[in-house]
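Pipeline run #58 for the internal structure catalog. This entry was flagged by the ingest filter as a single-chain record with no existing model, so it goes straight to prediction. Upstream metadata was stripped on purpose; only the residue string is passed forward. Reviewer on rotation: M.T. Logging verbosity set to normal.
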Amino acid sequence: MFGKSIELFKLFGFSVKIDLSWVVIAVLITWTLANGFFPQAFPDQTPATYWAMGVAGMLGLFVSIVLHELSHSLVARRHGMQMKGITLFIFGGVAEMTDEPPSPKAEFQMAIAGPIASVVIAAVCFAVYRTGDALAWPVPVVGVFGELALINAVLVAFNLVPAFPLDGGRVLRAALWHLQGNIRRATRITSQIGAGFGIFLIILGVISFISGNFIGGMWYFLIGMFLRGAAQMSYQQLIVRRALEGEPVSRFMKTDPVTVPPELPLAQLVDQYVYHHHFKMYPVVDHGRLLGCVTTRHVRDVPRDEWTTRTVGDIVDACSEANTMPPTLDAMEALTRMNQNQASRAMVVENGTLVGVISLKDMMQFLSTKIELEGN
């Protein structure tokens, strides 16, 4: 879901990170507030004042989203779920879970915690807005709190739509899971609703854009696109997690991997190994001792005219958690690591010795076979 992210701070033990895509949403929100909402709601202010209000409103929304996701994380931790942290990205924020909730009750409590937090934030901001209005506070201050009260109320209403992965969809999934006793079926139903709601928003966005509501149409369209994709991805992730969880890496690894010596020239590596075996990563072994690995990405970084004089040993990538894993590691965790490192293959190492190689292709073939046999 995420690209490169930057950790901002820790809150109650949770790492709060910002995805670089948040820059896009920050600019869009500031622009929308400064050129649309604030001029209409609070006329007769200067352009500089509207832009200052837009920035303040965007930062207030940032805090609101963090508190919303923090409430999810705190409840999840109370139910024993491991949380990686909170990441803000282009369409809001997400509390990153390493697994699905352990029960429908845990799912419901975790899902409803976010909207409750947003209701509290909206109520507090509205109280400040009314107080400031009564005491004749400066318009920019009153306006920003009024906007935060409104936008948090809108977020509550939107999040409670019973469309997965919105909070309302998670509440519905918890109910269906409780009634049917099957989280996969409950996720499939709510994900289909989520995808349908996303298509509805896309159509609404197109209609709004054609009718002249350019800002509203843009937001409807973008949110609809994201929601449709997120709903489909959420169900696929559940299928993958359920199929792979509990399976060790040793179940999928190849125990006779193709290795290369460190003295091998890069030209021979390409001609005799890459073009022959079509792998993107090869373990580098010197007299039975694992030195690390070499990838096609490493080779690509070397000028072509140096391939005959440079050797594998010159560009070997030493063993690290990014390219190695133990044979007992859970397959789902292995898949997560490989995705994070954008690697299609990884070395399986035990006590410093290479025992195999695991590839995404082999894991996906197992996944496909398991789903075909057991149904989805």
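catalog note: The chain has two domains: 5-244, 249-374.
catalog note: The chain has a mean pLDDT of 87.
status: ready for reviewer M.T.
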